[in-house]
């Protein structure tokens, strides 16, 4: 970890004004973290990720975080960090000049016993430190219940990876997105990666219960909750995925819900087709 931090400090000294806005061909304003790719590559190569890297071919973390304009000096919220796959990359990347916060569900709105969510949020920094060895002061955790005034309007970025389907299925998407909006600065951005259904897929397949959502529905949901689309990317697209599995997205790796049944077939397809979207908090 110390060797990584020394390399990170050197790279930070070579980067000036890393986040810029460029005009895309379609006229959309695209935010990119110019010069951050080397730092992201360093973070992706840390020993803490030795078991995570096998999935980089599907999840493209370097390209995804660069697209979302996540710079190393930012305050970043990771919604529903789960097992820490992205946390183990974000924590060392942000440790020198930025800050990572694990954002957990509001325990009052989830359709399950949320009594231990506050404990999970409190334990998040310790887990990250154990995984990565970063300074404990560079990591925090909180639920989206009773957001402290000091946290409101203080985040540069929030990232939401493959969780919107659960939020939709549990009927908590509106309240959780609004809470995240409260956390963001006036010019803050929220990045979304989500399993993507076909544009003409029926509601019964795109209500969250199968893991897939229609991209147009996601954009509309975010617009209704105070965001505007800045840019979209095909970084995490997978044309091999027909997105019509009877058992939902969990048919594919890494879950392999059908166990050994046709496992080679699903392994050859890989992980799901995914939309990658970037939204700005609007007035």
Task: Describe the fold and architecture.
The chain has 283 residues and is an alpha/beta fold. The chain has one domain: 3-Layer(aba) Sandwich (Rossmann fold), CATH 3.40.50. It has ten helices and nine strands. The chain has a seven-stranded mixed β-sheet with strand order 5-4-3-6-7-9-8, with helices on both faces. The longest helix has 16 residues. It is globular and about 45 Å long. About 5% of the residues have low confidence.
- Give the distance, in angstroms, between the N- and C-terminal Cα atoms: 41 Å
- Bin the strand percentage: 15-25%
As laid out across the biggest beta sheet, the strand order is 5-4-3-6-7-9-8
The total number of structural domains is 1
What's the average pLDDT?
Answer: 92
Helical run tally: 10
CATH level 4 superfamily: Vaccinia Virus protein VP39
Number of strand elements: 9
CATH-assigned fold name: Rossmann fold
**Main sheet?**
7 strands, mixed
As residue ranges, the low-confidence spans are 14-18, 21-28
Keywords: Methyltransferase, Signal, Transferase
Organism: Novosphingobium decolorationis
GO molecular function: methyltransferase activity
Signal peptide: 1-23
